[in-house]
Design goal:
Elements (H helix, E strand, L loop, with lengths): L1 E14 L3 E14 L3 E5 L6 H8 L7 E6 L2 E2 L5 H4 L2 E4 L11 H11 L5 H10 L14 H12 L6 E5 L7 H16 L3 E6 L2 H7 L2 E6 L2 E7 H5 L3
Parallel strand pairs: 3-8, 3-9, 6-7, 7-8
Antiparallel strand pairs: 1-2, 1-4, 4-5, 9-10
Helix pairs in contact: 3-4, 4-5, 5-6
This protein binds adenosine-5'-diphosphate (ADP) (2 copies).
């Protein structure tokens, strides 16, 4: 069944400074349950706009969007709780440890603190959990950000450029993490402008260019032809 269903999505930005800009021009995307789905396209192609519509952060100008079976933006708060997101590099408290950071979020979100060690294990940060975030590599910070996004056991996880700037070792750890998330029953949508990242991290892919879908299917089928 489809976890994300996007049909004919349109979005036009209007501003005094930039004039009118059509960010999405009849865009389609389908993401099935249990996939790590790559959302690949160059900068400015409309990825962030799509993700913001999915999350109910911005309104579409036309088309239909369903997330976990419910229409957006009328989705109930119950659906919103089942969606986790990492839409930009989060700001951390550099003097907090990963453990402190997650414990604080548990308290704020009424999640039991027993969840802290579970997500630390999931993202592979358990042995550094008591060290301050300021001592972490970029890859460790990105994995902590993913841990923050999955604290409430979302069914759908939306990640915007989670592998940006990672070295090959960081990418491998991110790949293991994507596998672990999928194995735990989560569906992941991962936006990236880097072909190699999507090839390494994802099972299936939608390619966007100028606000339109220009390809979709399994990574093996679609990206081998590019
Ligand atoms: P991507 O995430 O793929 O880089 P975006 O969705 O951010 O693409 O941008 C798609 C298009 O919409 C680009 O041309 C961008 O300049 C434009 N755009 C994005 N956000 C805004 C905004 N708030 N106001 C005006 N134009 C915007
Ligand atoms: P301890 O003296 O071992 O710190 P605590 O009862 O304070 O005993 O905490 C038990 C464990 O949980 C400790 O390992 C502690 O570091 C951790 N812990 C408890 N609360 C927090 C918190 N707010 N921030 C960071 N770690 C915490």
């Amino acid at each position: 069944s489809a976890v994300v269903e996007v049909r004919g999505l349109r979005k036009t930005y209007r501003s005094v400074r930039w004039g009118t800009r059509q960010a999405l021009d009849g865009f389609d995307m389908t993401v099935h349950a249990g996939e790590v789905h790559g959302f690949l396209g160059p900068n400015g192609s409309g990825k962030s706009t799509t993700l913001r519509v999915l999350l109910g952060l911005t309104r579409a100008g036309g088309g239909e969007v369903r997330v976990l079976g419910e229409p957006v933006p009328r989705a109930s708060p119950r659906i919103a709780r089942r969606v986790g997101a990492l839409v930009e590099s989060p700001r951390f408290f550099p003097h907090f440890s990963a453990w402190d950071t997650l414990a604080l979020l548990c308290d704020a979100g009424r999640v039991p603190r027993t969840r802290v060690d579970e997500v630390l294990e999931l993202v592979g940060l358990r042995d550094r959990a008591r060290d301050r975030v300021r001592t972490y590599s970029l890859g460790m910070r990105q994995r902590l950000a993913v841990a923050m996004a999955v604290l409430k056991h979302p069914d759908l996880l939306i990640l915007d450029e989670p592998a940006n700037g990672l070295d090959p070792a960081g990418i491998r750890q991110m790949r293991d993490l994507m596998r672990a998330l999928a194995d735990s029953g989560m569906t992941v949508v991962l936006a990236s402008h880097i072909l190699g990242e999507v090839q390494q991290l994802c099972d299936s892919v939608t390619i966007i260019s100028d606000g339109r879908r220009v390809g979709s299917g399994s990574v093996a089928d679609v990206l081998s032809r590019h």
